[in-house]
Amino acid sequence: MNNKEIISDQKEIRIDLYLSNILSSHSRSYINDLIAKGDIHVNGTTTKPSYKIKIGDRISINIPEPILTEMAPESISLDIVYEDEYLIVVNKPQGMVVHPAPGHHSGTLAHALLHHCKGSLSDINGVIRPGIIHRIDKDTSGLIIAVKDNDTHRIMAEAIASHKIERIYRTCVYGVLDTDKGIIDAPISRSPSDRKKMAVVSGGKHAVSRFEVIKRYRKASDLSVRLETGRTHQIRVHMHYIGYPVIGDPLYAHKRKAYNLSGQALHSSSLSFVHPHSGETINLSCALPNYYLELLKELDAE
């Protein structure tokens, strides 16, 4: 079981809605299932989905581990940017899923890591997420960290949670920004109107992105974006929120010209962190992928 405890900071909201906003990776229907099975308690007692929370309610949640009990390693080529006995950093291609999910039971980064690392990966996040301490979306390319033992996992997970790992992305957005740099400080939660999307929502999780214009095109802008937090779809949601959605984004810009992209033009281009054991500062970067370079050529020709 993955046990969580939350102290409510809101009132007069149905508990199933409140928790689906707080636990953004879980749907409202999943929350209702947990309530029905007695896996959610309020102040020590079971509850109903219709219960309206009060400020200070102590909400205990038991999230069962995935049913999957094993995952076979797969021989999949990896672009390894850094590796030692504790961790590995991979340049993930666009289109690769990080770990198994509905509709993606093979060919994931997790399958490839199991093969490459010969099973020597942390298991804190369960069978289907070996070594995984953070994620990037399927159609986002670039750098992602995995760890090889549980002690390293705990240290690196805490570094991510406390924003001690610097993550910088490149992204191309629709429209020409009139400012060279800026900060987007806007809370993110599950969209109340579309469960597939995240959105800027009052009372959502604190989220901050800093952007800087690399180059302006006639109809678009190439940006560098540094994450100060790491919310689901954060850059995609924030750029859509200020009126400059990411080019090719199937969720937040699906009616815009896609420039023959198979997903959003978003690339995790650099990472910087203090090594959990040596104390050395590790600075890593990777080149822009071909799909991104081709997009820049097309934008230049418009």
**Count of the domains:** 3
Described by the principal axes of the CA atoms, the overall outline is globular
Order of helices and strands: EHHEEEEEHEHEEEEEEHEEH
CATH homologous superfamily of the largest domain?
A: Pseudouridine synthase
Largest sheet: 9 strands, mixed
Total helices: the number is 6
The CATH architecture of the largest domain:
2-Layer Sandwich
CATH topology of the largest domain, which one?
Pseudouridine synthase
The total beta strand count reads: 15
**Strand content range:** 25-35%
Mean pLDDT: 92
Q: Kindly, what is the distance between the CA atoms of the first and last residues, rounded to a whole number of angstroms?
A: 53 Å
Computed Rg: 20 Å
Q: Which structural class fits the helix and strand makeup?
A: alpha+beta
Task: Give start-end ranges of low-pLDDT stretches.
Answer: none
Helix content: 10-25%
CATH class category name of the largest domain: Alpha Beta
Give the secondary structure arrangement, pairings included.
Layout: E1 2-7, H1 15-22, H2 28-36, E2 40-42, E3 45-46, E4 58-63, E5 80-83, E6 87-92, H3 109-116, E7 141-147, H4 150-161, E8 166-174, E9 181-185, E10 188-190, E11 198-200, E12 208-216, E13 220-227, H5 234-241, E14 266-274, E15 281-285, H6 290-301
Parallel strand pairs: 7-14
Antiparallel strand pairs: 1-4, 2-3, 2-4, 5-6, 6-7, 8-13, 8-14, 9-12, 10-11, 12-13, 14-15
Helix pairs in contact: 1-2
